[in-house]
Amino acid sequence: MQQEFDSLHKPAESRVVEIVKQFRFEAAHFLPRVPEGHKCGRMHGHSFRFEIKLNGEVNPQTGWLMDFGDITSVVKPLLEKYLDHNLLNEVPGLENPTSEEVAIWLWKRLKPSMPFLTEIIVHETCNARCIYKG
Predict the structure, then answer these.
(1) 85 counts as catalytic
(2) How far apart are CA 17 and CA 64, in angstroms?
(3) Which architecture, in CATH terms, is 12-132?
(4) 124 has catalytic annotation
(5) CA 40, 46, 51: angle at the middle one, nearest 5?
(6) Which of 37, 51, 87, 104 sits in a 20 to 30 Å window from 119, CA-based?
(7) Model confidence over 76-102: pLDDT tens digits?
(8) 40 has catalytic annotation
(9) pLDDT tens digits, residue range 30-80?
(10) pTM as predicted
(11) What contacts 36, CB < 8 A, 6 or more positions away?
């Protein structure tokens, strides 16, 4: 009897998860608004890396929050058309392509297709990154 009572009054198990998918691209840029003589004002390149984080409840039918393949299918066109092996300053909306601006640019383009998007982390170098949470 006690066991039956306990199972009826046990809190529901959480099905909320966070998933993360990482992408990379190579790009050149310069920062036009830095003080004269600043090294980032000169053209240079980075091996950028960014992470997309989604948070929400696991769909009981599929067993996932969002298919990783669907995430890739949304991100890949942006990588291929605008980011990878491009001069970021020439991308509409990235005329001043700081890590912060790249993170916001990505968010604006990904959020409509990814309602569970909670965070984008742009790594400009091995030890410098920007976190944007919308």
Answers:
(1) yes
(2) 9
(3) 2-Layer Sandwich (3.30)
(4) yes
(5) 115
(6) 87
(7) 999 999 999 999 999 999 999 999 999
(8) yes
(9) 999 999 999 999 999 999 999 999 999 999 999 999 999 999 999 999 999
(10) 0.89
(11) none
